[in-house]
Amino acid sequence: MNTADAWLHALPVHSTGRHLLTLEKARKLAILSPTSWCIGPYRCGYAIGKQTTYPEWDLYYIVDENNEPLRFDDLDAAIHFLCTQLHIYHAVLFLTPILIEAV
Length: 103
Prior knowledge:
alpha+beta, 7-stranded mixed β-sheet, 2 helices
């Protein structure tokens, strides 16, 4: 087991083998995660991601259905945009290589 991902094993696991979390819990884990991650709305074409190619850049982005990125400096601002402007409240959090589903 990779020690960087050891914190994932403390999460409750659904019978499907996926970690089921609220969007708020997924947000908190995304902040803590040392790896690349993406919060993707459930059955929708949008995604929030954090690039880790250049760790000194703290950049979050939303990719819409046309694959056009909207950039945010803050994860909460990106999630707020999803909820208030796009009316998306359910999401899936992808942590490479583990999938965490937010409900």
